[in-house]
Write a structure and sequence with these properties.
Number of domains of chain A: 2
CATH topology of the largest domain in chain A: Alpha-Beta Plaits
Order of helices and strands of chain B: HHHHHHHHHHHHHHH
Largest sheet of chain A: 4 strands, antiparallel
Helix content of chain A: 40-55%
Shape of chain A: elongated
Structural class of chain A: alpha+beta
Number of domains of chain B: 1
CATH superfamily of the largest domain in chain A: Histidine kinase CheA-like, P2 response regulator-binding domain
Largest interface: A-B, 11 and 9 residues
Structural class of chain B: mainly alpha
Strand order of the largest sheet of chain A: 2-3-1-4
Number of helices of chain A: 5
Number of helices of chain B: 15
CATH architecture of the largest domain in chain A: 2-Layer Sandwich
Distance between the termini of chain B: 29 Å
Strand content of chain B: under 5%
Oligomer: heterodimer
Chain lengths: 180, 392
């Protein structure tokens, strides 16, 4: 498999305000933000990183519709086609009686589908080892990971920018990754 | 910080329009009382219960927001506070119906076929003096607690040393502890007892869910209006709208859930004394109103409110809020009027349109008056900064 060297430039910060400021500044300078690591969900970080809206809710909707549709069809088939049973004199094809179960199956499909899609999308397969950029990002540190995409990446001015936001540590790292 | 009382200078054309609508309503009511008394009283009952619901619901919103320690809506609190000022007018209309038109309620002079009902607990519960005393008690309790919450909030503006947060907590707790029970019992009294033979234990919650949807819709509509005018510029953000949208979507789904609970259990068990309610409403022209009700109170708003971008758009939210407020009128109309007029269909005409226009005009005038009484944003509150810089 062909492999490529990727150079990463990391800043480790100590507070929520610093990571937000540094991320905002990096985005405004047009630097490539690979990811931001934080020990808890920081409000406003998705805007600072310039993340686009997730398409996950659309998938949830699709799974919900699929689950509801399949269940309605299944109930119709079992009670009205395959094995009609007279329950309380109601017609075999009785929509109101199907609704509660249809609702439950819709929620089940949408819920499990969303979790599964999220895990697949984030490559969070079972047994995967956690890969942290630096120690402490699950505890009390915040890390901003930039990529040196080309030779024009200006380390000096980036470091200066990091220092404005009280950077604790700057790390440079080269990793080999398969070309996707 | 000194409190500044808002001077809402709305255009004189708007004031003239609302006053004209209120006058049309008064005329339609007067003409209706003479020419078509049953329709006029029934419509007065529909609109009064709706107005009382908005009034007490505003207080309930403040109480729940306060008790849960929430902060997001503190800056918008003057809107539900203004809604509390709808309580007196709604109460007068409602008490007028209960006092002057007892015959709307079939149990007051029970016919021979209803005689057998008026024994045991039902006979004791449904007697006129007790019925009227209950109505006065519910309305007085809600007015006292609602007005106390408003008063504490306004006094806080004038005196920063006042312990208003703690004080409002006491009234909020009292309202929260008593409201659920009293509103359900009031729904049983004022609406369900129109058909004394019919009963549904979920009916109170069903009416409560519809009421709370209308409260959130009213808050949304007024907040968007205030932002367009300028008073809420820099106060009402997309984050607030997004949360109001989520609440609207959630509560209209609660309404649909209870709508279906009531319908399905009655449809499934198929008892004669229970199905009567739906038989009237599924025949003739009422059937279209029956499905219209479900469409505008749940199907349409649910589908439209699904994307986040819609919940953050003030023009879309104002339209949905208007739709849901109309939906509340249709829902109440369908709960009340078929029980009085019976099989056939809605007699929809000049009285209905005139009185609805009157209610809209009167509510608009009262809301503007309520907003004028104090600074448009609470000046001093523990949670104010949290609310102004809110991020959902």
């Amino acid at each position: 498999m062909q492999r490529e060297n990727r150079r990463f430039y990391l800043g480790v910060f100590g507070t929520e305000e610093d990571i937000l400021g540094a991320t905002n500044e990096a985005r405004q300078r047009g630097l490539t933000i690979v990811d931001v690591y934080a020990p808890y969900a920081v409000h406003g970080l998705e805007k600072a990183m310039g993340l686009r809206y997730t398409r996950l809710p659309l998938f949830t909707l699709a799974m919900g519709i699929l689950g509801a549709g399949l269940k309605i069809w299944f109930e119709f088939w079992t009670t009205a086609v395959s094995w009609p049973v007279n329950v309380g004199g109601k017609p075999w094809n009785s929509l109101p009686a199907f609704i509660p179960v249809t609702f439950e199956v819709m929620v089940l499909f949408a819920g499990l589908g969303t979790v599964t899609a999220f895990f697949i999308g984030q490559r969070l397969i079972p047994g995967r080892k956690a890969k942290l950029p630096v120690h402490g990002v699950t505890d009390d540190k915040f890390a901003l990971v930039l990529e040196e995409t080309d030779a024009s990446f200006d380390k000096e001015s980036t470091q200066k920018m990091f220092e404005e936001f009280h950077v604790l540590e700057v790390v440079e790292r080269v990793e080999q990754e398969p070309i996707q | 910080m000194s409190a500044t009382v808002t001077d809402i200078r709305y255009q004189p054309t708007a004031q003239r329009l609302f006053s004209a609508m209120a006058a049309i309503g008064a005329l339609s009511l007067a003409a209706g009382l003479v020419l078509a008394p049953d329709r006029a009283w029934a419509n007065l009952l529909v609109l009064s219960i709706g107005t009382v619901g908005l009034g007490v619901g505003g207080a309930v919103f403040i109480a729940v927001h306060r008790l849960s320690g929430a902060g997001w809506a503190t800056a918008l609190r003057r809107v539900p506070e203004a809604m509390v000022s709808l309580l007196p007018v709604g109460s007068v209309g409602l008490l007028a119906v209960l006092v002057f038109r007892p015959n709307l309620y079939a149990w007051v002079n029970p016919s021979a076929e209803l005689e057998h009902l008026m024994v045991g607990f039902k006979g004791l519960w449904l007697n006129r003096p007790f019925f009227l005393a209950r109505a006065v008690f519910y309305l007085a309790l809600w007015s006292w607690l609602g007005w106390s919450l408003v008063r504490v909030s306004r006094l806080q503006d004038l005196d920063p040393h006042r312990k208003g947060y703690r004080e409002s907590g006491r009234y909020a707790a009292l309202l929260a502890a008593t409201f659920g029970l009293t509103y359900c019992l009031a729904s049983f009294d004022w609406i369900m007892s129109l058909e004394p033979e019919w009963y549904s234990t979920v009916f109170g919650f069903y009416n409560l869910a519809g009421m709370f949807v209308a409260v959130l819709a009213m808050m949304t509509l007024m907040s968007v209006w205030l932002r367009r005018r300028g008073e809420f510029r820099g106060v009402l953000s997309g984050e607030h709208l997004h949360d109001l949208g989520k609440l609207l979507m959630g509560f209209c789904t609660v309404w649909a859930y209870l709508w279906f609970c009531q319908y399905m259990l009655i449809w499934y068990s198929n008892f004669p004394e229970e199905t009567g309610y739906y038989l009237i409403r599924r025949e003739g022209a009422w059937n279209s109103v029956f499905f219209l009700n479900l469409a505008i109170n749940w199907i349409l708003p649910f589908l439209i409110l699904l994307p986040a971008s819609v919940k953050r758009s003030s023009s879309a939210m104002a339209k949905i809020a208007t739709l849901l407020l109309l939906g509340r009128v249709v829902d109440l109309y369908l709960m009340i009027v078929p029980s009085i007029e019976g099989v056939g269909g809605p007699k929809f005409g000049i009285y209905e349109v005139g009185m609805l226009a009157g209610a809209i005009g009167l509510i608009a005038l009262l809301m503007i008056r309520g907003l004028r009484g104090a600074a448009i944003v609470p000046q001093i509150d523990l949670r104010l900064q949290q609310s102004l810089h809110y991020h959902s």
